[in-house]
Amino acid sequence: MSQLLGVIRDRLFAYYIGPGQDLDVYLAAFRVPDFLYIILSTLISATVLIPLLAKDESETERKRINTLFSVFLMCVIVLSVLTMLLMPLIARLVAPGFSSIQTDKLILLSRIMLISPIMLGISNFIGSINQYYKKFFAYATAPVMYNLGIIFGIIFFYRYFGLFGLGLGVIMGGLLHLLTQLLAYRSSPYTLTLTKVKDMSVITDVLRVSIPRTVTLSLSSLLLLILTAIASFLGPGSISLMTFALNI
């Protein structure tokens, strides 16, 4: 369903906006929070968390997972805020071929959408707990809700807020993604809490396992950033058409 909605989403992009400067700016701006999200989500993913949950359900192990959650939440917030502050520099690397007006729009739009990695990161952390307790429907539904939020932004927000309405659609999608996981998580016997970080052993254990996977998966996202930078030197609509082709 999520993949099907992705096709419909692209069709709506083509119908309501069309390949051109505005859609190029949106898609280029989307690359930045997407790249950040991929790095963070692969570092602390279900493939890492579920074995920790299955290993031991003692109070000590739960404290270790709460420590991991606290560090992860702090990192995703700090990195998102730092990226927001550095967007004027990052924008020139992401789309060096853009005009000054396009670059200004890219900076503002990226800053709006950088809220989404925070919500999606928390959602995926909670989603790992949902999977462990066999709440697979919520985990599968969350990406569907994410695409529905983006589609709502295309159809409604874009009409009233223009290009920045698309960014609001991404935020709405991230919020729906998180709420879907939270609804299932409410009935779980596990409770996540923020805690003081006293023992970093769980962090080093997770990083030792996940960094190779993170490097591998982030390379494809890095390649998209490079392709976007190259396409920004071509005619209006080049980034849009490239993205449509890649998505298909």
How would you sum up this structure in a few lines?
This protein is mostly helical and 248 residues long. The protein has 11 helices and no strands.
Can you walk through the features of this model?
With 248 residues, this protein is mainly alpha-helical. It has 11 helices and no strands. α3 crosses α7 and α5 packs across α6.
Draw up the topology in text.
Layout (H helix, E strand, L loop, with lengths): L1 H16 L3 H23 L2 H10 L3 H27 L1 H8 L5 H14 L2 H17 L3 H26 L1 H23 L15 H31 L6 H10 L1
Helix pairs in contact: 1-8, 2-6, 2-7, 2-9, 2-10, 2-11, 3-7, 4-7, 5-6, 6-9, 7-9, 8-9
Roughly how much helix do the residues carry, as a percent range? over 70%
Radius of gyration: 19 Å
Main β-sheet: number of strands, strand sense, barrel status? none
Question: What is the element string, with H for helices and E for strands?
Answer: HHHHHHHHHHH
Number of helices: 11
